[in-house]
Amino acid sequence: MLEILTSHTKDNVQYVDEVALVRAIQDPDEATKELSKCKDNYIVYHTGQEIITIEIRHNPLYRSRRHAD
What we know:
With 69 residues, the chain is mostly beta strands. It contains one helix and five strands, in the order E-E-H-E-E-E. It has a five-stranded antiparallel beta sheet with strand order 3-1-2-4-5, with no helix packed on it.
């Protein structure tokens, strides 16, 4: 679980520049549960990705994580 400290937006994509580790989650089922509860600047994201991007949707109840290409 990460807290987004700084980010910028371009073309409906939020690019996360700096994060703080809140806690590591090893269990995939727990990660999925925590992901559904995240709000504000908190996200659950696989740290194997070098770049964290979040697609901005017009529906404010749903955020989608995108993998870097």
